């Protein structure tokens, strides 16, 4: 099978970039012919660049020409897009349709139904845009990067293509990572039929099982922002006095550093490379994941499962499906400090429970999130999509 992977990278590397790389490498490792086409947001530097990119996000003729040239040269059986905003633009979907090539579009965020992309605004869940084609409230509030202009640009792009039927007719199959996400998109202004949606989780390379005897310390890994539940995390550590190591960087770094300077049990280790992160995961008692927003399908949780580390996570969004309470981890109420304190104490006072949860976490990884499992799921989707496209051509004759 010949697969063209297309991705619009972000200026700050994130989970979507990792998933794009993982999936394209996975298919290549199984003998498929893979071509990768990247559109890079790093070229957006000046105010003029941002303005022109916003205008072109509706339909970028240059991007269309690039994709057309690759199609003519590579002749893919299928195109798998991971992100097309803002440079690639929906224009690439029209090129694929012109050449009758089926398109799979992985949905990593909620941009198609809300310009915020996260369903979060001012630190709270924001869902007012979901059922609106052109959500004015979102523009007024500037839910995308605090900018009314950039929000309006995102609304114009997604809304126009809803009216044109682009999302309904130019994408053969959508992939979402959870039932939660699928339900959100089905109950939205996107108006795409249910049979066009497939659920396939992300996967993680096998990082190897961690230490049997764990250190008496909890771990947080991630961007230091309010939506990650940083304040809840810090308060729980302060109240319990339990050791907490924090890896990452972000806008709340100063807050974290202040807590760390005042409380010896809190250690801020800053940003770390992947190898150091995995080593920390292999040693800790549990990973803390107190997010207060609808995370997509966090890679950090999959990596924790891979090394046999249980996760204490907010009972919210996809995390409800990933974490089995008292199975491979523990649920906590989003933003509830006392609940997080209780669960941290539970694992500290019941080491046998922590070990059982850790073993179950590893089993969850092997059953659901190992590369080979993901390959089987992805290949099945590809074959279905190619067959569906062939059937459409046959019916059109």
UniProtKB/TrEMBL annotation:
This is Glycosyltransferase family 4 protein. Its EC number is 2.4.-.-. CDD domains: GT4_PimA-like. It is an enzyme of class 2 (transferase). One of its GO terms (molecular function) is glycosyltransferase activity. It comes from Rhodocytophaga aerolata. InterPro entries: Glyco_trans_1, Glycosyltransferase_grp1. Keywords: Glycosyltransferase, Transferase. Residues 214-362 form the Glycosyl transferase family domain. SUPFAM superfamilies: UDP-Glycosyltransferase/glycogen phosphorylase. Gene3D superfamilies: Glycogen Phosphorylase B (3.40.50.2000).
């Amino acid at each position: 099978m010949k697969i063209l992977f297309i991705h619009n990278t972000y200026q700050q590397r994130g989970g979507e970039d990792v998933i794009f790389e993982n999936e394209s490498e996975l298919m290549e490792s199984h003998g498929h012919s893979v071509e990768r086409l990247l559109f890079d947001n790093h070229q957006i530097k000046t105010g003029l660049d941002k303005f022109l990119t916003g205008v072109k996000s509706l339909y970028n003729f240059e991007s269309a020409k690039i994709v057309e040239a690759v199609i003519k040269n590579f002749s893919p059986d299928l195109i798998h897009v991971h992100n097309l905003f803002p440079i690639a633009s929906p224009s690439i979907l029209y090129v694929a349709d012109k050449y009758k090539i089926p398109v799979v579009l992985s949905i990593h965020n909620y941009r198609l139904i809300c310009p915020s992309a996260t369903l979060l605004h001012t630190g709270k869940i924001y869902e007012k845009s979901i059922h609106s084609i052109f959500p004015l409230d979102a523009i007024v509030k500037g839910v995308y990067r605090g900018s009314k202009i950039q929000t309006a640009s995102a609304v114009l792009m997604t809304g126009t293509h809803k009216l044109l039927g682009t999302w309904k007719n130019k994408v053969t199959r959508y992939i979402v990572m959870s039932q939660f996400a699928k339900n959100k998109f089905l109950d939205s202004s996107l108006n795409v039929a249910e049979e066009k949606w497939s659920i396939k989780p992300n996967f993680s390379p096998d990082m190897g099982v961690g230490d049997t005897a764990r250190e008496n310390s909890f771990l947080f890994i991630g961007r230091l922002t309010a939506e990650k539940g940083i304040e809840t995390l810090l308060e729980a550590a302060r109240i319990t006095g339990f050791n907490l190591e924090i890896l990452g960087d972000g806008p709340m770094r100063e807050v974290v550093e202040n807590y760390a300077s005042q409380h010896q049990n809190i250690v801020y280790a800053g940003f770390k490379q992947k190898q150091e992160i995995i080593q920390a995961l292999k040693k800790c008692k549990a990973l803390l994941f107190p997010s207060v927003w609808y995370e997509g399908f966090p890679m950090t949780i999959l990596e924790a499962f891979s090394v046999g580390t249980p996760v204490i996570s907010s009972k919210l969004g996809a995390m409800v499906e990933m974490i089995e309470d008292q199975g491979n981890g523990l649920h906590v109420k989003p933003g509830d400090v006392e609940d997080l304190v209780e669960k941290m104490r539970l694992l500290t006072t019941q080491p046998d429970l922590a070990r059982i949860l850790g073993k179950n976490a590893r089993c969850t990884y092997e059953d659901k999130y190992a590369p080979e499992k993901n390959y089987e799921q992805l290949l099945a989707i590809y074959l279905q999509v190619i067959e569906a496209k062939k059937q459409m051509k046959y019916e059109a004759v």
